[in-house]
Amino acid sequence: MQKKTLTTLLMLALLTACNNDVAERRKPGYGEASAPISQEVKITVNSVDKPDSLEFQKLMNAGVLAAGKDYPTVKLKIEQAPNQDAQIQQIGQSAADAKAIVLNIANNQAVIPLMKDLCAKKIPVVFFGASPDKRALADCPLDYDLRGDDMTAGVVQGLLVAQAFKDNPAMDKNGDGTIQYAFMKATQGTEFTRDRSDWAVATMSSYPELARPVSEVMVSYANFDPALGLKNLEAWLANPNFSKVEVILTNNDDTAIAIANELKKRGINIPVYGSDGGEVGLRAVKSGLLAGTARGDYQQWAHDAVRVAANLGLGKPPLEGLPTSYRMEERTIYPPFVGISAKNVDEFLK
């Protein structure tokens, strides 16, 4: 009982931060050059911009470019290469001229030698999009990690599902009062997947006035790959237990959209919930293809990562110029997520 109470209190705290963040982002000037950086600072950034990039990667690249325009005193050098090993090598070669580095490297083990080298040279590093190895981050007091608050993403997604079951009793197909779900998760064994998944389930089963029993019917891992998600879906559809599934949750919109499209082709009506909330995900909610998504503003986060790096390069507090709702724990900066459904999607579409 005590554990459930603590879980509920943390959910409420995270959602309060979300609501404050939405209000703050609607203030005029946020995300613009309203808090200028008065001194010149050189920042090196690696960025992903390929035709086959996932939507959130494209948004992060756009955020880096926007920061360069919003902060003219920040001299950005953007490193792009065919793969991340080449990007690590490029950053290592060009770092000497930078006051700070912004990195988006998925392989958190491969980047450790570079982290150690930059730390020895007293060059701060701000990670975004993909988190560094925790021990390596702890070893260098100059480094920071700006990442989406995946616990909040899970809480927000779970709240969307729980609210939908309350508002639409027909979603409970067998009328047993239990949410019977399938979960197409991202990468097995990662903190990202654990937080987005476990907190979604905990919210459905524990949130005040909306909580109801939950039952996991099926679970698979798609590793952010929509094609693998569809392959897993085929296996689900061949399993007689799939008939029990009342809702499908995923850890990212690209996979959710692929699954929802395939179900639509087959005439199977099961609500699908994503997580990311980029333009494609928002339009999928608007069209009714997705039932909802947890929105993280990846473009703004990349913009913010450049701001944090500039602050560090100039010896300023890392959070200067960012929303007060951002929380920081042990040099990890957490921007929150917002729940998106048909009720509010128009507020966020461009």
UniProtKB/TrEMBL annotation:
Residues 55-316 form the Periplasmic binding protein domain. Coiled coil: none annotated. Gene3D superfamilies: 3.40.50.2300. It is found in: Periplasm. It holds the Pfam family Peripla_BP_4. GO terms for cellular component: outer membrane-bounded periplasmic space. The keyword Signal applies. GO terms for molecular function: carbohydrate binding. It comes from the Bacteria. Belongs to the bacterial solute-binding protein 2 family. PANTHER family: D-GALACTOSE_METHYL-GALACTOSIDE BINDING PERIPLASMIC PROTEIN MGLB (PTHR30036:SF2), D-XYLOSE-BINDING PERIPLASMIC PROTEIN (PTHR30036). This is Periplasmic binding protein domain-containing protein. It comes from Kingella oralis ATCC 51147.
